[in-house]
Amino acid sequence: MVISFTMARDIQHQHLSSSLSEINHLYGNNVHLFSSPICLSLLAKLGSPQTKQPQINDLVSMLYTHMIDHVVDVLLPRTQANIETRMKEFHPEAIYEGQVIDPEAPAVCVDLARAGTLPSQVCYTKLNYLLNPDKVRQDHFYIARVSNEKGEVTGVSVAGSKIGGGVENAVVLFPDPMGATGGTIVEAVKHYQNLPGGKPRLMVAMHLIVTPEYLAKVTKLCPDLVIFALRLDRGLSEKNILNEIPGTHWNLEKGLNSIQYIVPGAGGLGEILNNSYC
C-alpha cells in the first residue's frame, strides 16, 4: 500500500505585509521618514562631539543595516519559495513554503564617495546575502560639493566614476548619509537615468538626515526617486513652524546654515568618517 503525502500551505507565509513606521508629513508619497526610537537614539549619539572612531563607523553601519532591512522589505520584489529545512530528514512537512525576497532581482549600490563609501558597502553586503550575488553590483561615483570663498555651496564636481554596466530593471540604491542641498543626489540620479540600456526598476536614496531644502529640490528635479531618511532636520525654522506637521509650511522650513551644513545635523560626515578634513 502506497501512502502519498500532500503538504498543506500555511496561509501566514503566503502574502507577507510590510510597513514602515513613519512620521506624518506633507512632502509627498515618495518621501519616507522613519519613526524609530532606536535609530534616533543611535543617530543622536553619532552626532555627538564626544563620539569618535571607531564608534563612528560602527554607528553608521548599525544605522544602515537597519535602513537596508526596511528598504528591502518595502521595495524589493518577492517570489514564492519551497525550501527544505534540516528537519526534512525526519518530517516530510519540514519545508518552508511561502514568500521570500526574489533572489533573481538585480540591484546596484552606488558608493557616492567619500561619505557614502561605508553605507554602500553595508548595503552591498546585505544584498549579497539576500540575492543572487551575480545580480548585485557596487558602483563608485566620485562626487563632492563645490564651495566659493565664503564657504557657500555653488555646485558639485564629479571627479570620476566606475560604473559596472547598465541598470535595466534593477533597484538602484544611493546610500548617502547627509541629504543637505540635494546637488549630489540630483547629479547622480541624472547620470544613471542617462546610462545606455533599459531603465531601472526604481531608484532609492537612503539618508541618515535630510533637510526641507533637500526635499524641495530633489522631489522637484527627481520626482520618481524614492527617498528614505532616519531624521528630518529643520532646526533653523521659527518656533511656530516647528510646531506644525513637517511640510505644512515647506517654504518656511529651514535646516541649512549659511554654508549649507545641516542643523542640528551631525557635522560633516565625509570628514568625520575618514578623519580627514581637507
How would you characterize this protein structure?
Helix 1 runs antiparallel to helix 2 (55-75) and helix 2 packs across helix 3 (117-130). This protein has 7 helices and 10 strands. The chain has helices at residues 37-47, 55-75, 117-130, 183-193, 212-221, 239-242, 269-274; strands spanning 31-33, 78-84, 95-101, 107-113, 136-147, 153-162, 171-175, 178-179, 202-210, 226-232. It is globular, with a radius of gyration of 21 Å. The chain has one domain (19-79, 99-274): 3-Layer(aba) Sandwich (Rossmann fold). 28% of the residues lie in helices and 25% in strands. It has 278 residues and is α/β, with parallel strands linked by helices. Strands 1, 4, 5, 6, 7, 8, 9 and 10 form an 8-stranded mixed sheet that branches. The chain has a two-stranded antiparallel sheet with strand order 2-3. The longest helix has 21 residues, at 55-75.
